[in-house]
Amino acid sequence: MNKMFPFLDIEAHLQKVVVVIFGILLFSSLLFYVWKRIKPGKLIDEMILRLRSWWVICILFLYATLSGPFATCVGLGLLSFLALREIYTHLKMRNTDRVALLVCYLCIPVQYYFAYKGWYNLFMSFIPVFMFIIIPFMMVISGYEKHMGRSMGMMTSAFVLSVFGVSHMAMLVCHPGLNLDPAMGKGLLLFLIFLTQINDVMQFTFGKLLGRNKILPVVSPNKTWEGFLGGLLGTSVIGYFMGFLTPFEDTWQIVLLSFSVALFGFIGDAIVSAIKRDFGIKDMGDSIPGHGGYLDRIDSLTASSAPFFHIVFILLLA
Amino acid sequence: MKRLILILTHSVIWRSFLRFIIGVKYVNRSVLKREKQYILIANHNSHLDSMAIMSAVPMKSIHKVHPIAAQDFFGDGSTVEFLMKHFVNAVLIPRKRPKNSNDPDPLQIMSDVLDIGHSIIIYPEGTRGEPGVMQEFKKGIAMMVQRHPDIPVIPIFLDGLHRSMPKGVNLFLPSNSKLFIGEPINFSSNETELILEESLQGILEAKTH
Lengths: 318, 209
Fold this sequence. Notes:
The structure holds two protein chains of two kinds. By secondary structure, chain A is an all-alpha fold.
């Protein structure tokens, strides 16, 4: 019973987060219900659609995180696959790149297997060292040179964005050094995901309320300096209060972690926005009602998870 | 038995494979559940097209739906022909007009299928073309409409399947794509030219549903 429903006996400090998350969801649902009753309209319908997706996302994420490393690896591997498929749909690949593409897809289970086993060195070198040599070589073998440089660049960067970055989240719960007690990695993963999403919300809210000066006028006109700084500040403060999820005791360590999640989250968001602008599309897909595609939801995570993992690693083990 | 094989391959195995691995999405699928018999017309860019349309057909009528395929391309008497007939449920027709009276007439073959109450899938372009470019429609579809005016013609727009399996490639890969099913076309007249034009419009408009 406890294996199927791990949240029935999760560690005490993780329970708090579960309560907080469902508290926020329930509160918003109630708020939106009343709002719709009083003042129905298009905006609230859109918000309700988004909230409904949030319920599904939160339940899936919590289940995958709390029920142990295996479910986390499978879930994140699936997420990587969906994100990679989404981004390759928009890249105009040449027909001769298809063998290299197949290799990319087949690398996903391998990378997550290394993560599941906690083999740190293989995990870290497999994609940036070995596949970065092999994937371009697959294109060389196929023997059509026109636009090859473009294909090599696009395919490898899309691959790192959606697989290498995301797989660091799996490594958080599987690395033997970070999981001296079983709740440690789970706590760190929840901390990372919760703060990244909070940062998105904070940036959005501060941007809407105070936004005056555009920070990236060309590639992402909706982002403002006020939203960016408000996000940094707000996330650092909330991160300070969520610090009980991490094994760190010094305040500066927790604030540094929260700050870096906010900073890299913003960078990831900006990178994916820029790619979308280049493709001339608004969303990467329409798989999550109200949010767009998978990559639209995890854009900040693609950039924040790897730096987060390494900062934790350096602070804790170096 | 054949019906069981078709249900298993298309409605169970292919549908899950196409949806979850390849990333095909069906839009407005309820039209196919509503109508009993139909002529499905679609744009053609990939070998996956027929498989995708077949997997969208409701389970209970799948044995009554036949993709029309070219005899000279698929009917070489080998395993391909066997697979086409038993696993894809295809009807093979010769692409050329009959020269002497003994040769089978492709239009008559299609008509016979419709006469026994079955449905057909036709690609009016005749062959797989460049993605995004509609070729001129062959006249066969117009003649079918003239002979069977009471069977609804349902347009289907296939978007992006050519990325999963382009022409001339034997490897299919995951890549998001969509299958838009339009509302049955109401033809304003019985003239060949008009029917062809309205079929083309129907396919292009299916995308907006």
